[in-house]
Amino acid sequence: MDENLKFISTCAVGIEEFLIQELKEFNFKNIKKEPFNFRGRVLFEAENFEDVIRHIYRTRISNRIWYFLKIFKLTEISNWKDIIYEYIYSLDSDEFLDEYTSFAIRTKRRGKHPFYSYDVEKVAGQAVIDRFLNKKKKRPPVDLENPDLIIRVDVSTDNTVICGIDLVGYESLHKRGYRKYEHPAPIKGTIASAMLRLTEYEKEKHLLDPMAGGGTIPIEASMMAINMPSQFLKKQKLHILKIKKFEREKILEILDEEDKKIIDDTFFIYAGDKIDKHLEGAIENTKSLRVHNKIRFYVEDIKNLKYFFKNKKFDIIATNPPYGIKVAYPEEVKRVYRDFFKTLKEILKDKGRIALLTPRRDWVHEYAYGFGFEIKKEIKVYHGKLDTGIFFIEGKK
Ligand SMILES: C[S@@+](CC[C@H](N)C(=O)[O-])C[C@H]1O[C@@H](n2cnc3c(N)ncnc32)[C@H](O)[C@@H]1O
Question: Whose CA is nearest to atom 12 of ligand 1?
């Protein structure tokens, strides 16, 4: 058994706590938030790669996971090139590389340095090539676009250099593979999952997204309800299958085991939107997961839901209202927030839970308190380039 392998898991800035919850559920140890001053990252330890492969397949919050190889400090910043070259040259990349494995270095920096990220990528890349040339007398192919292996060499604010092997590759795990219809303002599956975690969603609960757009929140919830791994649709394309160190057949066996945990169960998820084109798109998005007959879709304006649902009440309402940022009349969008909170009083169970994602903090505050709700939690998240909040609100009584 491998001892104390270290990994770094990355997520959208602001939802690290949910990633930590997830890592704890996987029984990973020594979990540390924001290592080396990098926000949106969590360091953890695992006993073996198998558990981490399961985690990559299942995680709903993480964007990418890298196997942590080495850290070192740029003690003399003026000498950064030599230090990086020397350490990267000494990096044991041999079990990951061969003459057929194309590679690329990727660098992210936090803070100010007398160099750019691409300078680091050049120096580190040369060190990997030189080591390989000296040892194997061959040159590993470099592919900056779509490499088989991504070696991470990041530099933090205090000039710490963090090196690892990216186990996720080109396409971040927030992409699930179900999005056939592109809504003009979708949220990421990872953020939707964080919202659902906040409400403690489980399949027995009656959940509504009344402004569902392309359906991200209901789709993520349905995957949770049937215990489907987040990467189910990308199984054959997972980057980990391309990494030389791992045996493809063995990995597929592990993933098959995870698929056996999927359950064919009933759940109570409702998804609505006032625009039928979006709703049709949302249905399209659920087809590959075969949950389109189980989610209850409808077209209706939020202001009519009191009549539409008659006496039905929900345990959880999780939604992502329009932002009204690029529109001529934001006041019209503001009215949607008023209608939303007014309607909540009619369709939310006592002590029901609400999760909202929006950059419109002032509108949420005005109407939540205006209609007698209390905002229990407000989490800042960066969603695209927007400074957004996930609000957690609880119904009264
Ligand atoms: C930000 S988008 C939601 C995107 C969705 N979370 C996704 O990932 O695809 C907001 C949605 O609210 C819908 N909407 C706006 N006003 C509404 C209203 N009064 N009643 C119901 N839906 C409304 C819009 O049509 C739009 O699809």
Answer: 211
